[in-house]
Design brief:
disordered C terminus
């Protein structure tokens, strides 16, 4: 077993740990996911993985984590739909769904590198509703899964670097790392006591 494969497995296990915590939180009602974000992530995750696999020249080590994320993304979407504790779809969510659909259509017309960037645009747009939701109400999400996923993407960047694949392959882990750290930090606010309470203590 090579060093890069071990690192890729660690990255994948962090993703699975985050999803296990997240799905349990969804099922118990501790979080209220943004449905539009998960519809977008669940819908385009297979496209993201396909384009990523192509960019990595069919490198299984680099693609191990994306393949795993695709499977658990779809599973999580089913859990969210089954449990029914998600946030309502608003204007921002509807706009994100429409823009993501356009990005996917452009993906069909573009070459592999440009196609991957189109999918990344859809992922960014799809994440915006979740960011907005956590900004408004930090209690709708738990920080731990997002921070675990962020750490997983940091390790995935190391794997991409060690395997010397296309520079475009950095886009997906870098973008998701930055956005997920932001969501995790925003969600942390729900666990901090208000400043007035801290002063009374």
């Amino acid at each position: 077993m090579t060093v890069t494969l071990i690192i890729a497995i660690v990255s994948t296990l962090l993703q699975l740990a985050g999803y296990a915590i997240y799905n349990r939180s969804v099922w118990t009602g501790r979080v209220r996911p943004n449905l539009s974000s998960w519809l977008i992530w669940g819908g385009i995750s297979s496209l993201n993985t396909a384009s990523y696999f192509s960019l990595s020249r069919h490198d299984f080590v680099v693609s191990l984590m994306p393949f795993t994320v695709t499977a658990v993304n779809v599973l999580t979407l089913f859990v969210i739909l089954r449990k029914g504790t998600f946030q309502r779809i608003g204007r921002v969510d509807a706009a994100a769904l429409a823009i993501s659909a356009i990005a996917v259509l452009l993906w069909q017309l573009a070459g592999s590198s440009l196609a991957n960037l189109m999918v990344q645009i859809a992922i960014i747009v799809g994440t915006v509703p979740t960011i907005v939701g956590v900004w408004r109400d930090p209690s709708v999400e738990r920080p731990l899964p997002w921070l675990l996923w962020s750490l997983s993407f940091v390790i995935a960047i190391v794997v991409v670097t060690m395997r010397h694949v296309s520079w475009v392959a950095y886009a997906s882990p870098v973008i998701q790392m930055v956005m997920y750290i932001g969501i995790g930090l925003l969600a942390l606010r729900a666990q901090r006591p208000p400043l007035a309470d801290m002063r009374r203590a």
